[in-house]
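> tool_call: predict_assembly(chains=two)
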Amino acid sequence: MDLTFHPESDFKLLLAVPLIPLCGYLLQIFFGRFLPRKGDWLLTGGMFATMCITLYMFAKAMNHAYSGGGHGGHDEHEALIGFFHESRHTGFKWSWLFQTGEAPDSVRNLTIGLLYDGLGAAMLAVVGVVSFFVHLFSMGYMQGDRRYHIFFANISLFTVAMLGLVLSDNIVFLFIFWEIMGLMSYLLIGHLAQDPTSHRINHAARACKKAFLTTRVGDVCLFIGFMMFFLHYETFFFSELWAQVNADVALNGWQSWHTTAGLFLFGGTVGKSAQFPLHIWLPDAMEGPTPVSAMIHAATMVAAGVFLLGRLYPVLSPEVLGVVTVTGATTAIFAATIGMTVFDIKGVLAYSTISQLGFMVAAIGCGGVGLVAGLWHMVTHAFFKACLFLSAGSVIHGCHHEQDMRKMGGLRKKMPITFACMLICTLAISGVPLFSGFYSKDKIVMASFLSLGHEFNGPALWASIALPAAAAITAFYMFRLIFMTFFGAPRDSHVHEHAHESPWPMTVSLMGLAFLGIFGGHLWLNGDLLGAHGTWWEKLVMNEHNLADLSKMYGGVELQNTYGGAAMDPHGHVAHSAHIWALGVSSFVAALGIFAAWLIYHKKKIDPARITARLGGLYTTVANKYYIDEFVEITVIKSSVVTARFLRWFDENIIDGCVLLVGRINRTLGFIAAWFDKTFVDGLVNFLGTLSNAMGSALRLLQTGRIQQYISFAVAGGLLAAAWLILS
Amino acid sequence: MEHILSWITFIPLIGMTAIICLPKQSVGLIKRVSLVATGIPLILATWLYFQFDPQSVAGGGFAFEEHIPWIKGISANYSVGVDGISLPLIWLTCILLFLGVPASFGIKKSEKAYYALLLLLEVGILGVFISLDYFLFYVFWEIMLLPMYFLIGIWGGPRREYAAIKFFLYTLAGSVLMLIAIISLRLGTGTFSIPEMVNMAQAGLVVGPEFIGLDYSTWVFWFLFVGFAIKIPVFPFHTWLPDAHVQAPTPISVILAGILLKLGGYGLMRGCFPIMPVAFQENAYALGILGVISIVYGSFVALGQTDFKRMVAYSSVSHMGYVLLGTGALTVWGTDGAAMQMFAHGTSSAAMFMVVGVIYDRAHHRDLNGFGGLCQPMPIYWGLTTICFFAALGLPTMSGFIAEALTLLGAFQAGDPRFQVLVLISVIGIVITAAFLLWAIQRVFFGSLNEKYKDYPDMTPREIFCMAPLLFLCLLFGVFPHILLDVMEPSVQHLVTLLSVGK
């Protein structure tokens, strides 16, 4: 098989990646209900084709990375940075806003192209694979749903958006796909809000609205952020932003607006990747069907925020990175503590997702090794968390839509495949060596240690404490889940009796993802099993093992935001000892967490009720999610509604009142005028009328109609006239 | 196709005459005549839209011009023409009026008069968009007012007379201010021709006497501005809108929101700003503030509504604020965004009023809290409503997104850095808009179904026919914005050049 890059034909393949599911969506939405099996095979088949293309392209990327990039290098740029394609530069381009006249060439236009680099290659493959397995899983899980065909259509359109987001070469298109994902997330969380047979119908209705609005706050921040960057650099393209920002900073240093704009950009991540304090939507989003949770709220959409940080890392100032680290580390430990108190099987996984996203974000904030590790955790997490969710879905399906872990137990024998897959992925998320999660998590811990550096660094210190602690808690609550669900005696005999293993589409999906949960980490492992010399991931995104030089990830741009350990040589003494430390610490905390869970929930040496009683108010606070929902309810939602009600009153009474007042004044003036008119103007007229009337009556006396009288008047008049003439 | 603009404008008048001649009883024929009399202009306008070469008006000027001397004594001419700003709006008018006819088939009260007035309304609206002579412009402006008054006042809801009179008086007040300004412009410049006035304004020749202590350009600017702002409507001149909308029958609300509001924005771009560019520059920031107040205030008041139609009406106030913000910024992007917003809002808000109409026809009330679970009996209705609402809240791939994004980007780049603050405030409106729309969806469509609504029929083919094309246009221009922007761009650029005179 030819695994070298041929940009012209490869772009067509990459274009086909989002277009295949898009066509599937259009067919499904109009004709799905008429197709046999309501068209699920159509979309799943389409996703299979998509997955094959993404894997083929991924193989090309890996081949390129491992062969040193000598082949497809048709221009200097590419030869320098391994492979890094922007289709704008290789022929394919589409003017989006304007196509005729002078505007298309102006800075105001937007040209669309594809960006395919190491990070994109891996993420594209991840989305393709996870999406295919989720489609397959849904064929079993969603069986009997009222709106089966719509569900498939929606999840397919979601995949289109996610694939488009990964391939975008400019931030506007990333934002567009980002928003479409928001819409699909809304519709899929609300899937059961339209099903009268669901007893969670009102919860789902609230949850989807909350998810969309909360992330929209972040989206608006993101928009402001890239607007600020556009104002200064007049470009939306990632590669141009990287180059221009860093060239500018090299000359003039970081400006304060860089930090402001960077914080706004990070706001997008906080919303989409459910970071504190905008994480509140994600636990509620579990109202969506489980495949949706696996796909959107674990593997792909929430990872988009992390992906965004990966794309925009070069434009974030050191101050922003500090905030990123603190936010991530705080989220990691904060969500992990809540995860310990939740009894809903999907709820545990939801908080676990928030916590793991916190790991990724914190790592990226650490810079350098952390950036690479954080992005890698995004990849490995996608596999094992999707698998965990799907396994949970399988359990829920097997237990006839029971989600409370307190009613489960002893399911190991009833659902062996589900159990095995879930155990593998639990080991992976806990960071047990040789499972995929270990490699990335180990690197994250190492990055936080590395960025401690030689002088005091608050964010790094916090990350170095919070992340290992969160890792221990992760291992604890994940094994708590395993022990409560699969081990021990059945707590609810009714649930247990009716439990059964899931049909083949579901188990096959689980096994596929569990396989990646193990081997996703040491695929093409280099040298040692512990990954000290780097793994396929570094090879792919960096194209070499020099972790000190991140410029290889960003088109050869000399990065200016050296923060924490970015400048450290990973092969040097400091890095080596940091890695040893990280290895020790992460293995130790994983073992500690697992041991504690085993002691409490399997051996039952310690009664969890006693611990919670001892903790008292602290436990209640954590179990109530630190009352953040209540806080937001009061401060944001209530205040908005009160403002709205007040402004409505203001509008109807004050503004419209003024208008009506003007109207009333005019009407009153009208009445006064009418009265005046009637009394005076008309009075005068009437007076004149009366007067002339009276005069007429008086004169009438003279007009008697008798000739003699007229003659005598005439004679008298004539005499009077003659007398006057004579006298004068 | 020599007099194509006149044909487009006056074919509905021929239709109206035909309807007047028909007997009152032949309702079917009246409807068919109305369809034809609105359909032919739509075909012609569509042809015109794709025939139009935007580059031909790149440096100013107009296409498809006609000049006929009219009233010689006051040198008022019948001169018409289009550029990239008016042409999309003409097209939109023809689309909405054509869809307005089948949307009116539910009306069962003196159809003959109704359709005759509807066609007269179309003549008035199209006339305003094609006029290049201020006298002609004003005549059409007033022609349009009259049928609207009767359409609300006769076929409206329970408080129709109040609403109609409020609408009429409010608009008339604006017209009076406008008339004073137009007369003084005629006296000052010696012409009614808008292009000539614009040319004179470029040379700084539009001068005149002071009035109530304000210099000429300021008072003429504000008189014209208020006249048009009432139509947009801009805070605080907006309170006629919710009353008119709530009382008007559905198709009239559609036309009111879809086009009549655009006349205000169009009037500012054609007849106010370019004639008074200096006063515009002096007051640009104030206009931006008014725009942002409209955006944020409108969305909050909409959030506080319990009446479905009032909510949609206030969302119009909010969305039309972008038109002011975009033009006030005096950047090409901002003005592009404003021009696009007029079209985008024309389609999305028209569709939203149809959404309200569909449910009102079935339930005979509009209380948002009185519904629930309607997506179960009416899945098509729910689907189209969702598309419509997401178009209104500016989801990417919908034309509203392009318009709002361009407006905000343009305003953010404005030469006046204070506009950046305005943009930061206006985004509150974006979030609140999403909030009230999604809340409405939740209250109307989600949750458990009220037994009363269990047997509601889904949308009829007629209703789908009225709404779907609008949503298709929202999507079309959201995915392929160049179809609109290419036509607008040269004229917008010219407009910005005109407005930047002396800068």
